[in-house]
Amino acid sequence: MKNISKKLLLVAVILATIIILSIKKEKPGNLIPGNLTCEFVTDPSVLDVSNPRFSWINEALNNSQNEKQKAYEISVASSLNNLNSEISDVWQTNKQRSDKSTLVRYDGKPLESMKTYYWRVRTWDKNGNPSQWSSPASFHTGILNKDEWKAKWIGAPWQGEERIAEGALPSRAPIFRKSFNITRPFKNVEAYVTGLGYFELYANGQKVSDDVLVPNQTNYGKREGLENKGIPVKDEFKDYRVMYLCYDISELVSMGKNALGITLGNGFYNSMINWVMPYGSPRTLAQIQVNYEDGSVEQVVTDTTWKVKEGPIMADGIYYGEEYDARQEIKDWAEADCDETEWLQAVERKAPEGRLVAQTSPSDKVKETHQAVDFKENIENKKYVYSIDFGEEISGWVKLKDINAKEGDVIEIKYKSESPNGKNIYTANGSGNENYSTHFTWYVFRNVEIISDSQLSNDNICAEAVYTDVDVNSEFECSNKLFNEINKIWRRSQTDNMHGGVASDCPHRERSAYTGDGQVSCITVMNNFDVASFYNKWIQDMNEAQNLKTGYVPNAAPWQPGCGGGVAWGAAINIMPYEFYVQYGDKDMIANNYDAMKGYIRYLQNFITEDKTLFAKSPSKESPLYWMNLGDWCPAYKMPSDELVHTFFLWRCADYTSKSASIVGNNEEAAYYSKLADETKEAFHKKFYDVENKTYGAYGANIFALVIGVPEEYKTDVIESLKNDIKANNGHLDTGIFGTQFFFETLAKNGLVEEAYQALNKRDFPSFGYWISQGATTTWEQWDGGNSRNHPMFGGSLNYLYRDIAGMNADPSNPGYKHIIFKPQPPKELTYAKYSKITPYGKAGIDWKKEDNQMEITVTIPVGTTASLYLPNSKGEFKNRPDYKLGSGTYTIEHEMK
Hints:
alpha+beta; 41 strands
């Protein structure tokens, strides 16, 4: 028996050795995981979610085809050293057999406040071979428990609690300072800080970040009398938020004496113009944490021990502009040795009603620098007058560089635009090599006039484009140069309108976060920019602006009382979460907004007619207000009936809510909203189809009908009627903002491929080309050039370039580009088109070339995804099934269009 036992033990040892050796000799995998993000952000500097989600992108070595992820392993640790150990100290998933590489939810130890965590991932390829561990990524937690906030809100004693009075001029911007000691060796120092409306934080004389115009804009709190100003919306929003940021200032401080400085601007918190309403005087909150090497912690917090003084910003306001007097600068105001003799004590301020939340959405930054393309100098009334052209319209400011002027010399910058811009005046201190750019507002301009007491040169001046820090993550190009230019000017208009984590209607006159403008263009934005964290924030703004009792969603979020709109504006809460889900595959977006979607439909149902159409009459049927019940807007000629447009959006909201109910697993409610959508669709056709004239009407009515789905028995007649409408307008569109969104794609999908192409190719009124022919470098509000000439809303129609001409589409049934649908529709005049974007799985794209009826099509499909390729015939038509079903990789296919 002993011999048998020894033999069995020997066999077991040999088998174990073989297994260990086989593991050690496991072939290297074919995948390289990279582009690690946490909650859509690369190395977020502050998060306040308990279970953040991780994503990564796999790339295949040598771009091999049909590669996929079979498994993953995530490691999360409290330090880089612990991350590199065999088992991490915070969370180790071990090998998980799954192809999931997006939004994998953290499920480890409870995260601690104010701490940096490190993570990495490795993946197994289709053959079961592991990759190397990825490069490490990180995320930093904010203050997770409100009781951990020890700081107090503080302000300047000369300002009081009250908001700026209507017609009053802004007062001088306050600067705050605080000296503190670091008594022993430290690991790091972090500042958790906010300021309303805007703040800048300094440590030992240096600005701690390249962020500008922070924090991002929200409904900060209650505003007394809100419903009595402009459009009567009650201040009964679902929630209010104030965002704070976190900055690691370890490299700006040292052992011994240090100092912090904060400058405050009015921002939207304290700006007054007839269509906005302020909240209160500027105030700030800061909590600085010193983490010592011995494990102890010390905090420096805002309270009444801070000192405050009037700073060199003599006046500032979002709409007012900025006046800066460099003679009032205190050079060492944010340094340790500043003389505080003449400084006042800060006073405690009331905390806004808004919850303190970490800002995970991107901040505004200086994104581009533009040099003058034309610079002219004249002398008028003993002053130097400069006329400067920067080549294209941007939002931002002029930067003065290395100015040599006498003390008291004034430089006035006048920003030229068809819409109002605030003032910008700089007074020099005579110190030599002075530098200045605006702190707490932005301007919109291509041309400026500078009137100066001092002579300037082109080298002293540049323009800085300022907008929310979103990057272009796509490329479109085709053989039609006009189409490329249209896409370019829309992109410029879109970025010009992105400030404070929202997209505005126009960046100069109103600067308001209109929900209707947001929903009509959101897909185009997502098809051009990396905007997942941007929309996460803005859609939450819309959700929180809803009235819980009524379900009403206002025309702008954050709300300002001058924002007109109607059914299609509030519909953003139904449309944008669903479109976000299609683009990014994020079910949480649906789950978090599903109740809000239902609430808005509940609001709309108050206005359903006996015919089961929708004709909104808010705030009440007895006294409807025009600016709360718009239909379409900014038409080329006329608008379709409001009732028709309202009914269309009731159908669309019900349809999207039904789909969303299915996504969250509520089949009963999915059936309810599907039935509502079907009933609304039937009522639409019954009420608005003109049997005698075989049409729903011009100006977008036929377009809306075809989007809903026209009954087969008169679909041919409706398409013919639409075709005749276009002919009657010499091949032009005739639509407002919502009709235009669907115009080109609806034509292309209904056999009018050439008509769609030619309508976009026009250079006379009404068309994008008409704007460009007049020198536009941005898209405009009106087809005739009226009102604002910087409005991105008509860009909602440009998905036609990417989804139809180039032919790349997300698949709603496999969202986030898990499955890609390629369906190129090349018009006769085009010889090539290409479009690509970075999807949640990596770069996907299509590049086709055409000569006569011969096409060469190259498609790129990311690892872990599949694609269906449909090939067009000579009429732009497709088979009912794909011509090719493809796995990941790059493929080139020759095709004859018969």
